[in-house]
C-alpha cells in the first residue's frame, strides 16, 4: 500500500511538471506508419538496414526522442544507412519484420533490422549520446560502412 501510494505521488508530480518541459503534452501527431492498416507493406528502401521505432501514444520518452532526434535522424549517416520506420506497440508488426528478441515491452524500442530481421535492439531513450553510441555500435557490428565522423 505504501509503495503504491509513493508511486502515485511520484507519477502525479511528474505529470504536473512534465507539460512545462514541452515534451509531455498531448500524444504525437498521427503517423501514417502507425495508423496504417497492418496489411500495408513496409516502406521500400534501397538500404538493407532499417531502424524500426516501436512507440505508443503518451510515451514521454518517445516524445523526447521525437523532439531531440526526429527531425535530424534522416539527415545523419545512420539515418541514411538505416532509414527510420515507425510502428505502434499495440499494432501488429509491419509485414516482412522478424523480431528475434521477442515482442517489445517498453517504448520507445528501436529495432535494427537487416533485410527485415532483427539484429540489435535499443530499449528506451535516455539521451542523444547513449542513442547514437548504441546505434553506431550496432551498425558497425553489422558491417555497415559508417563514416569515421559518425563513429
From TrEMBL:
Top-level taxon of origin: Bacteria
Record's protein name: Thioredoxin-like fold domain-containing protein
UniProt cross-references to SUPFAM superfamilies, sorted A to Z: Thioredoxin-like
UniProt entry keywords in alphabetical sequence: Signal
Signal peptide: 1-23
InterPro entries, per database record: Thioredoxin-like_sf
Organism: Thioclava indica
